[in-house]
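anyone seen this seq b4? input:
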Amino acid sequence: MKKICIMNKKNKPRIFELNRRITYVGRSAINDVQIKDRYVSREHLLLRKFEDKLLVMDLRSKNGTFHNGNQIRSGTEVEIKEGDAIVVGASVICLG
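predicted toks r here
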């Protein structure tokens, strides 16, 4: 089962198992994974398992989603691998 780790300067790292095919990430409590950060949109991004891959898609967030330093265009899916960094607000999401 795939896992993600969310890190920021204020809190210790948090680990989440990706139990579902699609996992929603954002500031709102309705998301599967909540990130309490004013620079994270209420519904910021989704993570989708496809075969043995993990894909990330920005959901028209206000401040963007960055994959290894490059901004992900809204609505575009990008494959993430171990060692990649997904930056949302002041947080970094890593696979593994």
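The chain has a mean pLDDT of 96. Residues 68 and 84 are 6 Å apart (CA to CA). kinda curious what u guys think
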